[in-house]
Amino acid sequence: MQLTHIRLLVANFSECFRFYRDVLGLLLNIGDENGPYASFSVGGAEIALFSRDAMAEAVGTSALLSVAEAKDKAAIMIAVSDVDAAYHAVVARGGMFVNPPFDQLQWMVRYAHLRDPEGNLIELNMEMSA
Predict the structure, then answer these.
(1) pLDDT (0 to 100) of residue 2
(2) Residue 1 above 90 pLDDT?
(3) Does residue 1 lie in a domain region?
(4) Which domain holds residue 109?
(5) CB 15 within 8 A of CB 25
């Protein structure tokens, strides 16, 4: 088996597309703002967006209700060389963070969190020097 990418199922495709392309500044591989599918390069990995309705149709769950929960079930982790520089660059492009960069000394990691337009949690992180 080989993991090829992470696919986020989104309700507002064009808004999420612009967020990953324009706010996070990821490199577009395929697709456009009109959807229903697009993928972006993140280092050696990919993040793909797919219309939630199109996926529900494909798997036969269109008639089911969407259920939102209060706590996150997953997070996208993106390693950067400088969390503070990445934070300021994303803020300058309109990103809004859940928290500013901070150190987690127990794990020797500096990170900051933000959400995409669908509420998916994204962590920008870097290892700290000992």
Answers:
(1) 76
(2) no
(3) no
(4) 6-61+72-127
(5) no
